[in-house]
Design brief:
Elements: H1 4-29, H2 39-52, E1 67-70, E2 73-84, E3 88-95, E4 103-107, H3 119-125, E5 130-136, H4 151-164, E6 170-174, H5 178-190, E7 199-203, H6 215-222, H7 225-232, E8 234-235, E9 246-248, H8 250-260, H9 262-278, H10 281-294, E10 300-301, H11 302-314, E11 324-325, E12 328-329, E13 339-345, H12 358-362, E14 371-376, H13 388-404
Parallel strand pairs: 4-5, 4-6, 6-7, 7-13, 13-14
Antiparallel strand pairs: 1-2, 2-3, 3-5, 8-9, 9-10, 11-12
Helix pairs in contact: 1-2, 2-9, 4-5, 4-11, 9-10
Protein name: PHB de-polymerase C-terminal domain-containing protein
Pfam family, one: PHB_depo_C
InterPro entries: AB_hydrolase_fold, PHA/PHB_synthase, PHB_depo_C, PHB_depoly_PhaZ
């Protein structure tokens, strides 16, 4: 098992000339005038494009947010790294000429994809907020001498990043990092830290996975932690800068995700081939854009993955008051003088209803008038933070909650 990642990388390297060749052949075919290219040629071009796209990428895609509407003005947006560690950057979406707005740290999950998965979330937040994001680096590109990165390190990064934002910023955590976001908030509140968040918003996060367990939760509890270490942890291939670092490979995570909805993904690629063959460019681009992001994967540090499975999904330490951070208990009763908002999706099959809401139960010293819970009807996991209902129904509630508590 330790050689699986190396074998996979060798295979990708050996087949890379085929993908390059297919891409080159496709470019030549596209030079043929449209009036001369028949149905067979279009189908050949479609097949070549599918071959050229038959690989994962380990490079972060661009956010591609060049401007945003603030009120009735279009404001240019530039990306600025304001703080950096070997494992992540604090990325600021700077808006020159925008009015002063609440500073928000958007906490992206470290779950096999890059933070760019939250591109739509960022663009929506930018309308009314000064947005920063946790832009995690791919462990396969981080040399081993930089050391380990576990669950406590993730929480430390949030505390450090919040400190860079100045007094009383706001924090919005999406999915998996909700546990670390709440832990960081508790530690900072207990220490009376000047940069403790003014509001904490947890969206579709696994605070207590004992509540209505999903298939993901059940799988995490179906095996002893040794099984995960022995079967899912691999060494980064020698071709990479992070050679021999232990990771949970992104391609393994993606394989698990794809297998959960295999028929849908097969159908999407058949539809893509048909759209390309028929010259339906706009429909094809919609599918390609989705899979460009979906097939951009990042590995997870082995320590972070194993500790998350054990502490969050198997032992449920946070809701039981047993989670430790740097030798001290994480006391959720210390969370006070902040606003707490929780958001869940009715059809979420990754983090079911009640799991995020439990944060309201364990943060007993947050005043009732500073609590908000919203269950969004008709959305699954990703619909909580992307898409029409996020933009039109969830975001207005979050925006008003942040502004009232600023």
């Amino acid at each position: 098992m330790a050689l699986l990642y190396q074998a996979y990388q060798n295979h990708m390297d050996l087949t890379e000339p085929w993908r390059h060749g297919a891409a080159a052949a496709m470019r030549y075919l596209n030079l043929i005038p449209s009036g001369l290219s028949g149905r067979a040629m279009r189908r050949l071009s479609a097949a070549l494009e599918l071959i050229s796209r038959s690989a994962l990428t380990y490079a972060r895609p661009a956010y591609g947010i060049d401007s945003v509407m603030v009120g009735n003005r279009e404001i240019p947006v530039t990306e600025e790294v304001t703080f950096k560690t070997p494992f992540g950057s604090l990325l600021h979406f700077k808006k020159d000429g925008a009015p002063e707005q609440p500073r928000v740290l958007l906490v992206a999950p470290m779950s096999g994809h890059f933070a760019t998965l939250l591109r739509g979330t960022v663009k929506t937040l930018l309308q009314d907020h000064d947005v920063y994001i946790t832009d995690w680096h791919n462990p396969r590109d981080i040399p081993r001498h930089h050391g380990r990165f576990g669950l406590e390190d993730y929480t430390d990064h949030l505390i450090t990043f919040l400190s860079q934002l100045g007094p009383r910023p706001h924090m919005v955590a999406i999915c998996q990092p909700s546990v670390s976001a709440l832990a960081a908030t508790a530690v900072m509140c207990e220490d009376n830290h000047p940069s403790r968040p003014a509001t904490l918003t947890l969206m579709a996060g696994p605070i207590d996975t004992r509540i209505q367990p999903t298939k993901v939760n059940e799988f995490a509890k179906s095996k002893p932690i040794d099984w995960f270490e022995n079967n899912l942890i691999h060494y980064v291939p020698f071709q990479c800068r992070g050679a021999f670092r232990k990771v949970y490979p992104g391609f393994v995570q993606l394989t698990a995700f794809v297998s959960m909805n295999l028929e849908r993904h097969v159908k999407q690629h058949m539809d893509l081939a048909n759209h390309l063959a028929k010259g339906e460019v706009e429909k094809a681009e919609t599918i390609k854009t989705f899979y460009d992001e979906y097939f951009a994967v990042m590995d997870l540090p082995a320590e972070f993955y194993i500790e998350t499975v054990r502490d969050v999904f198997q032992e449920h330490l946070l809701p039981q008051g047993k989670l430790m951070h740097r030798g001290r208990p994480v006391d959720t009763k210390a969370v006070r003088r902040i606003g707490l908002m929780t958001v869940e999706g009715e059809r979420d099959d990754i983090c079911s209803i009640g799991q995020t809401l439990s944060a309201q139960d364990i943060c007993t010293n947050v005043r009732a008038y500073r609590r908000v819970h919203h269950m969004q009807a008709g959305v699954g996991h990703y619909g909580v933070f992307s898409g029409k209902k996020w933009n039109n129904e969830i975001y207005p509630l979050l925006r008003d909650f942040v502004h009232v508590n600023s």
